[in-house]
Each structure stands twice: as C-alpha cells, then as structure tokens.
C-alpha cells in the first residue's frame, strides 16, 4: 500500500486451503427475529459473514434452512430443529477442503485475521466456546456419532473437546 501500512495477507498466501461455513440456521429465540437478516453497519449479518469468509477462505458455504429468505444460496442442513451442530455437520459433509472454518452469523466483530489464524492452526478457541473454530473434515464421524447417541445439539462443546 502507498501509505506504508502492511496489507493483511490474502487467502492465496496461506498454505492450508480452507472452506468457510457460515452458520445461519439458528433459532434466534432470545433475539426475537432471524439473526441472519439483522442489519449491522448497513448490511445484514449474513451478508457481512459471507463477505468475511470470502476474504478468508477458498470456498464459502452458507448453511442453515434454505427457506429462510436469504439473497444467496443456502445449503439446507437437513435437520428438523435448529442448532449450530447441524450446520457444522452439513458443512463438513459438503466441504471441498480438509479444514472447515465455521462462523456463526452472530459474531460480526470477528476479523479475517482471526479466522485465518484459526484455520491455519486447525483450532477451536475452547470447548466452552467452540465457534468460530476450525474443524478437520476427518472429524465428521464424531458429531454424527454424538447426535446418533442422543439428539442434543448442545453437544457441540463435547465435539470441541475431542
């Protein structure tokens, strides 16, 4: 850049190819309306999250309920209820790359640098807060097994521990 400040490295500078998964299928019970359609700094949270993942990842999937009225394609998670674990499973199944960076739609202040660092490290911040985080596709059998044992979407923290 001409002003002397360093530019953030672009996706192509990274050695790990990433699939970004924007999770838009939450129930938004406490929020009162679909979070994905809430406006933040002039755009919807879904638009913002998708753009952020496009800056960070080599492939972007928006996962949730296809009928939720977003202005771009949404991969339906196929679940009867709404929880992040269903979107993560659908994203892991559909991803072209070995590492999936999962981003909930309701964290607009996360940066591309943070997502890139999570993806490069293959990291989940903590089991208590497993999103955003990076998950290897090879982990797919674990959440499927967790849900087969007991259909409780809150088990995402247990997935992060593994």
Going across the biggest sheet, name each strand in turn: 5-4-1-6-7
- Whole-number average pLDDT? 81
The name of the CATH topology is Spore Coat Polysaccharide Biosynthesis Protein SpsA, Chain A
**Major β-sheet annotation:** 5 strands, mixed
CATH class: Alpha Beta
Quickly count the helices.
5
**Strand content bin:** 15-25%
SS class: alpha/beta
End-to-end separation in angstroms reads 42 Å
How would you describe the shape? globular
What integer value in Å does the Rg equal?
15 Å
Explained architecture:
This protein has 162 residues and is an alpha/beta fold. The protein has one domain (11-161): Spore Coat Polysaccharide Biosynthesis Protein SpsA, Chain A. Helices cover 30% and strands 17% of the residues. The chain has 5 helices and 7 strands; from the N terminus they run βββαββαβαβαα. It has helices at 45-56, 84-94, 112-121, 141-149, 156-161; strands at residues 18-23, 39-40, 43-44, 59-64, 75-76, 99-104, 133-136. Strands 5-4-1-6-7 form a 5-stranded mixed β-sheet, with helices on both faces. A two-stranded antiparallel sheet has the order 2-3. Strand 2 (39-40) and strand 3 (43-44) form a beta hairpin. Helix 1 crosses helix 3. The longest helix is centred in the N-terminal third of the chain and has 12 residues, at 45-56. The termini are far apart.
């Amino acid at each position: 850049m001409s002003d002397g400040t360093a530019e953030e490295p672009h996706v192509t500078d990274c050695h790990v190819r990433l699939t970004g998964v924007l999770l838009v299928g939450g129930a938004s019970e406490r929020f009162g309306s679909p979070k994905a359609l809430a406006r933040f700094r002039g755009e919807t949270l879904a638009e913002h999250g998708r753009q952020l993942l496009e800056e960070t990842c080599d492939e972007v999937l928006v996962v949730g309920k296809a009928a939720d009225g977003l202005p771009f394609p949404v991969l339906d998670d196929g679940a009867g209820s709404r929880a992040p674990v269903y979107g993560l499973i659908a994203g892991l199944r559909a991803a072209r790359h070995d590492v999936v960076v999962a981003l909930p739609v309701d964290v607009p202040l996360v940066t591309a640098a943070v997502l890139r660092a999570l993806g490069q490290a293959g990291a989940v911040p903590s089991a208590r807060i497993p999103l955003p985080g990076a998950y290897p596709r090879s982990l797919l059998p674990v959440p499927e097994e967790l849900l087969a044992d007991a259909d409780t979407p809150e088990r995402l923290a247990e997935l992060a521990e593994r």
